[in-house]
Amino acid sequence: MGMLFEIVRLGLSDLRLHALRSFLTALGIIFGVAAVITMVSLGEGSKREALLQIERLGATNIIVRSQRPAQQAAQVGGQQTSFINVYGLTRADLEVIEQNFQDAEAIVPLKAVGSQVLRNNKAQTSQAFGTTPAFPLVAGITMESGAYITPNHMDEEALVAVIGSEVKKALFPVEDPVGKTIRIDDKALTVIGVMAPVGLSGGAGGALIGRDLNLDVHLPITTAKAVFGDIYVRRETGSFSGNEVQISEIYVRAPSRERVLGDASRLERILEVRHSEMTDLGIIVPYELLENARRTATTYTVVFGAIAGIALIVGGIGIMNIMLATVQERIREIGIRRALGATRQHVLTQFVVETGVLSAIGGLAGVAFGVSLALVIPMLPELALLRGLFGPDTSLATEVTTWSIVVAFTVATVVGLAAGLYPALQAARQDPIVALRHD
After folding, report:
1. CA-wise closest residue to 38 among 222, 307, 381
2. Is residue 372 part of a domain?
3. Which helix (H) or strand (E) segment is 217 a member of?
4. Per-residue pLDDT reduced to its tens digit, 45-68
5. Are strands 187-195 and 181-184 parallel, antiparallel or unpaired?
6. Contact 22/358 with Cβ under 8 angstroms?
7. Are 73 and 186 contained in the same domain?
8. Which of 77, 130, 376, 428 is a plausible cystine mate for 348, CB 3.0–4.6 Å?
9. pLDDT surpasses 70 at 138
C-alpha cells in the first residue's frame, strides 16, 4: 500500500513540475466536457421553452378552428368585386359538441368580430373575440388589472371589453385603461380589465394558436352576436369582401390527459358528419403536439451531445500524443527507476495515475466551464455589444442537467485513461539497460 501511495505521489509531483504542459494537455478534455454540457443545456433549454409554449395552450385542450377553404381563398385574387364567404363552425355545431361531451371540463366558443380596434386617433387591426367567462380557464389567462367577463355581462349583452397587454401598450401607453372606452369599428365598449402578458407571441405556441393573445380584445359572446352579427366585412379600394362565420373557435377541455386523444378522435368523427371534407375546419390537439415535441427534442439533444462528444475523443487523442512524447523524454528516468527495483507494474501505474489525474482535473474544470457558459448564454441577447446580432424577441434558453454533467465527466475520465494506457504500456515495456543508455 505504501508503494502505491509513493507511485501516486510521484505521478502528481511530475504533473506539478510540468504545470503548463499538464494544463495544455488537459485543454482538450476541458473544452470537450464544456462543449457536451453547453450543447446539451441548449438542447434541453430549447425543448423546455417549446414544451412550455405548447403546455400554455392546455395539455387537455382540443381546439377546433374555422378556416377559410382553399377555393374561397383563391377567389380573393379573382375579378369578383364583392362577395361573402360562408364557412366554419356554426352554433348548431356547438350544440352538438355540448351534447356529446357533457363530461368535458369546459367547452368555450370564440367569435371574431370587427375590422378595427380604435382609441381616439390610434387604431390597430381587430383581433376581437366574443367569448364566455370560462375562457381564462382553458387558455391559462390571468388578469393584470380589473376583472374578466362575468355571467351578468353575458346576460345583459353588455358593451364591455377585456384587452391584452399589447393592446394596452398601443392604445393606453401612459394611463390605466380600466373604465376607459375603446371602439370596435363604430361600437363603443368600456374596458373592464387587462389580461396579464401571455408568452405566446413567438415559437411553437404562437404558431399553433395562430395569433398573439396579447393583442386580443375579449367581449361577451352574446354581445358579439347581438351587436356585431355574423358577417365580418373588409373594404378595399373599389371592392369589399366579407366572411360569415358564426363561431371562430371552440375549446373543448377533456377531463384528463388520458382522455385527450380519444376525445379528439371522437370529436373529429362527429364534425366530419357535419362538414364532410373538413375543408373549413382545423383541429389542434396540443397534447399530441406535446408528445411529438418531446420526442423530437430528445432526439436533437442526443444528436447535439454526440456531436459535442467528438471533442472529448479529440481531447483523448491530445492526451495520448503528449503522453507518448513524455515517455520518450523520460526513458532515462524509467531506466533508473527500473535499476533501483521498480517493476513494470510500478511504471505502468505511475503513468496511468498521471493520465487519470489529468483527465479528472480536466473533467472537473470542463464541468465548471460548461456550467458557467450555460448560465451566461441566456444573457447574451441583453448585452449592449451583442444586441445587434440578435432580434428583439430572441431568447437563448439553457437548462443544465445533472445527467449531462455526470456523463460528460465520466466519459472524459474514461477517454483520458484509455488514451493514456498505450503510452503507459510503452513506458513499462522499456528495457532497463537500453533506457539507461538513452540520452
Report:
1. 307
2. yes
3. strand 217-220
4. 877 777 676 666 677 888 999 888
5. antiparallel
6. yes
7. yes
8. 428
9. yes
DSSP label at residue 196: P
Give the Cβ contact number of residue 173 at 10 Å: 8
At residue 204, the pLDDT reads 41
- 298 and 149 belong to one structural domain: no
| Domain boundaries, position 75 | 61-253
Which helix (H) or strand (E) segment is 290 a member of? helix 286-329
**Whole-number pLDDT of residue 207:** 47
Distance CA 249, CA 66 (A): 6
Of 11-25, 90-104, 227-241, 329-343, the least confident:
227-241
Whether 355 and 218 map to the same domain: the answer is: no
Nearest-CA neighbor of 315 among 414, 249, 182?
A: 414
Q: 387-437: per-residue pLDDT in tens? A: 556 555 566 778 888 888 888 888 888 887 787 777 777 777 777 666 666
Asked, for residue 212, whether it belongs to a domain, the answer is yes
Q: Identify whether 207 is part of a domain.
A: yes
Q: Which residue has the cell 381616439?
A: 120
CA of residue 36 relative to chain centroid, distance: 19
Show which of 253, 281, 309 is a domain's final residue.
253
Q: Is residue 39 a contact partner of residue 302, using CB atoms and an 8 Å limit?
A: no
Q: Are residues 185 and 304 in the same domain?
A: no
At residue 126, does pLDDT exceed 90? no
